[in-house]
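Person: At home tonight, work slowly through the protein below, taking as long as you need, and write a paragraph about the fold.
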Amino acid sequence: MIYLTHFPHEFYVWIIFILGLVLAVLFLIAIRMMLLSRQRARSLSQANLDLKKEITERENAEETKQKLEIALLQGQKLQAIGTLASGIAHDFNNILYAIIGYTEIAREDVTKDSLTYKNLGKVLDGCHRGQELISRILAFSRRQHQQFDIINLKSTIEAALALLRPTIPASVIIHFHANEKIIILGNQTQLHQVLVNLINNAVDAMDGEGTMDISIEHASEHDPLLKQLPAKIAPSYCKIVMKDTGHGMDQSMMERIFEPFFTTKEVGKGTGLGLSIVHSIVKEHGGDITVNSQLGHGATFTIILPEYKED
C-alpha cells in the first residue's frame, strides 16, 4: 500500500506561484513574439511598397528618358531637313525668278487676247504658287527671333475662331472652354497660324462633319507632358487641348506627323508643311506639342506653353 506524502501548505503556494510566473512569462513571450511578427510583417509590407515605388519611379524615369531622346532625335531631324530645305528653296527661288522674268518678257511680245498670252499667264500663276511654297519652306527653316508680346490666350483663340467660322461647314461644331485667364508671352501672328493650321486640319479630318473641343487650362506641376520638355523656362505652364472626332491616325502616322512634307492628304491637297511649321512655332515659344490618336477615334493635340506672370 502506497502512502502519499503530505507537504506543507507553503510548498503548494510556492508551486502555484512558480507555475503562475512561468505562465506569465510564457504569455509575455507569446505577446512579444506576436508583436515582433506584426512589426516584421509591417516592415516587409513597407519594404515591398518602397520597392514597388522605386521600380515605378525607375520605369517612369526610363520612359521620360526615352521620350526625351525621341524628341531630341526629332528635333535634330527637323533641323537637318530644315537646313537642307532652306538651301534647296533658295536655289529653286532663283530659278523661278528667271522663269517669271522671261515669261513676262514673252507676254509683252504677244497680244493680250491671244491663247499664248493666256498660257503664259498660267505659267506665271504656277510660278507664284511655287514662290508661296518656298516662302513656307523658308518660314519653317528660319530660326529668327520674333518679337513677343503679352497675350491673353483666351482672346487669341476667340479671334482665330471668329476668323475661321465663316469658312467652317455648319455641320462642324466647335466648343471652346476657358474658365481661367491665362497670359503668355508670344507672337500673335504666329499663334494665329498655329491655331488656324490645327483647326483646318481637324475640319479636314472630320470630312466636314463632327465635333471639335478646344480648351485651355493651367498645367499641373506633375503633368507628364512637362517631363518631356528639354528645359523649363518658366515656373508654370498652360495647356491648349484640341480634340476632334475625325478619322484619327495610327502610330506610324503620329511618329511622322510633324515632319516636313509628310501629309496624309491626297496629292495636290496638302504640302505637308502645316504641322511642321506649327511644331517649329511652338518650340520657338519655349513649349511643346504632342498628339494622341487612334484610327477611327479622332485625334487630340496638346500644346504646352510657358505662362507669363506679372511681377
Observations:
- The chain has a mean pLDDT of 81.
- DSSP finds six helices and seven strands in the chain.
